[in-house]
Specification:
Blueprint lengths: L6 E5 L3 H11 L7 E5 L5 E2 L4 H6 L8 E2 L1 H7 L3 E3 L3 E5 L4 E4 L4 E3 L2 E4 L4 E2 L7 H4 E3 L3 H17 L6 E6 L3 H17 L4 E7 L10 H14 L2 E4 L3 E5 L2 E4 L4 E3 L2 E4 L3 E2 L2 H5 L10 E2 L12 E3 L4 E2 L7 H20 L14 E4 L5 E5 L2 E5 H16 L3
Parallel strand pairs: 1-2, 1-9, 2-5, 9-21, 11-18, 12-13, 12-18, 13-14, 20-22
Antiparallel strand pairs: 3-4, 6-7, 7-8, 10-19, 15-16, 16-17, 23-24, 24-25
Helix pairs in contact: 1-3, 1-9
């Protein structure tokens, strides 16, 4: 009797899932009946997004055509977002109500943003998630800065002083200075009392020094409560004037994960075992920002490293073999693009900066994207 290939459903096209599809495309005959459910294509590589903002890359250089990759793997493609997962019945339900049955499934859907539903944020801010929204709104923001009249600099608020917010602040400033006659006044706002929480002290110090050289200001310990047309309102009633606001305060879990009855942590991210299987479900996996595992931060490097483990474990599970354990690395190379041809980095507590650091980052990023072309 011929074995029937298991039905494997990939929900989302994050860094780990594109690696699963790449490996599947190299195997003949196919090891599974694959389905990819994704609401937008192409996927955008987040590591190069600040460079796009700075004008260093074209949008197509960041793009990974997940649909083409899926079809090379012989996968069915469903161009819809999944909004509910029934782990017990092994079904995923899309926004249109379509049910997708599976034998094994994996979630790699990234995250939403903290505070996105605060008053005025959706109307007046340019959010960094979904990434396609930032890419689509970038040219409009730059055009608005060019068209603004008067001698005062264009005032940009970047809400969030994590790694993503820091890169965007520097890269937006570099772009606005290059393309507008007024220059740019950039302020980073964060409710935390320090920038880059959890980062190496050497990295933080170099970013602080670079911000002083470039005139980028910090408003720390400041909680944004609302946005309106022209200002951010902080807790306590103070207002910060702004011509534009970029919203990057950190990741929040997609509500459908909790609403699906999946096991989640206190922030709503799906709890997984070291094999990347969702707790309490041997047939459902989760990886990347949507997953919660001790020692795993919300950073792209963890999804990239998790991809090969996930791909192997899906194959092993289908064969009835023992699964591999994913062990998040304790340290990783940090590289922050400053938008002016230089970058700041840190490795094992040692900080460094310069044009050579940006060349290193560019080489790493381009190599990642080319892997999936």
């Amino acid at each position: 009797m011929r074995n029937v290939a298991p039905r494997v459903l990939l929900i989302g096209a994050g860094h780990a899932h594109v690696e699963v599809l790449r490996q599947a495309s190299l195997r003949a005959p196919p090891s599974a009946a694959w389905t990819l459910a994704v609401d937008c294509n192409p996927a955008i590589y987040s590591g190069m997004l600040p460079g796009l903002v700075a004008g260093q890359y074209r949008a197509e250089e960041l793009a990974i055509d997940a649909v083409a990759l899926a079809r090379r793997a012989g996968a069915e493609v469903v161009l819809e977002a999944v909004r509910r997962v029934d782990a017990e019945r092994r079904r995923a339900v899309t926004t249109s109500g379509r049910e997708l049955a599976y034998d094994f499934a994996s979630l790699d859907v990234g995250s939403d943003l903290v505070g996105i539903d605060l008053p005025g944020v959706r109307e007046h801010a340019l959010p960094v998630r979904p990434i396609q929204r930032l890419v689509a709104g970038l040219d409009e923001l730059i055009a608005r800065a060019r068209a603004a009249s008067g001698p005062e600099p264009f005032r940009l608020l970047v809400v969030g002083a994590g790694a993503g917010g820091v890169e965007l602040a520097f890269c937006f400033q570099a772009r606005l200075r290059a393309e507008t006659s007024r220059g740019a006044e950039v302020t980073m706002v964060d409710r935390a009392e320090e920038i880059l929480p959890g980062a190496a002290a050497s990295l933080v110090q170099r970013v602080v020094h670079a911000s002083r050289r470039r005139g980028i200001r910090f408003e720390l310990g400041a909680q944004v409560e609302a946005l309106d047309n022209g200002a951010a309102r902080l807790a306590g009633g103070r207002r910060l004037a702004a011509d534009a606001v970029v919203w990057s305060p950190g990741p929040a879990a997609h509500p459908f994960l909790r609403e699906s009855g999946l096991p989640v942590d206190e922030r709503g991210f799906v709890r997984v075992r070291p094999t990347l299987q969702v707790e309490g479900s041997g047939r459902l996996f989760a990886v990347g920002d949507c997953a919660s595992l001790a020692g795993m931060q919300k950073a792209g490097v963890y999804a990239v490293r998790g991809g090969p483990v996930l791909a192997g474990n899906l194959r092993r599970l289908a064969r009835g073999q023992p699964l591999r354990v994913y062990r998040p690395q304790r340290e990783f190379l940090s590289l922050l693009n400053l938008g002016d041809g230089t970058a700041i980095g840190a490795w094992r507590g040692t900080g460094f900066e310069g044009r050579w650091v940006m060349r290193l980052k560019d080489r790493i990023d381009r190599r990642f994207v080319e892997r999936y072309r």
